[in-house]
TrEMBL record:
Record's bilayer topology term: Multi-pass membrane protein
Source species of the chain: Linum tenue
One Gene Ontology MF term: mitochondrion targeting sequence binding
Similarity-based family: Belongs to the Tim17/Tim22/Tim23 family.
Record keywords, A-Z: Membrane, Mitochondrion, Mitochondrion inner membrane, Transmembrane, Transmembrane helix
Protein name as it appears in the record: Mitochondrial import inner membrane translocase subunit TIM22
Amino acid sequence: MPTVEEMRAQEVWNNCAIRSAFSGVVGGGLGIFMGFLLGALDNPLMHDPDMSAKKQFIFTAKQMGSRSWSNCKTFALMGLVFSAAECVIEKARAKHDVTNTAVAGCVTGGAMSARAGPQAACYGCAGFAAFSVLIEKFIDRHS
């Protein structure tokens, strides 16, 4: 039997707004990490082979910062949209299965690529839904 504190914590976590906000924050943190990693891998000598070590360091630091901010926004939005869609769909269907993941992936992929037009939104929907289902099957949360 769960304690009162455990039941309250579960009630808080079942709130779609809280779950989505948390996913957005965690996604943003992952984006910052990925930006630092990918920004550090950019070779400044490809841009100017005659750069001094100091200029290379400054260039790399700027690349890391700009990539981190860009990836932070992207991953935060992705986490927020996916989590919100999955939570709302799960509550509407009153089921916890892989269909929720597929539809949430479609919504997220479509929303993330909608600026590029309807065809890109369709490809984004299909691609992100397939990726979400594969990850879900790999993790095997719903068995």
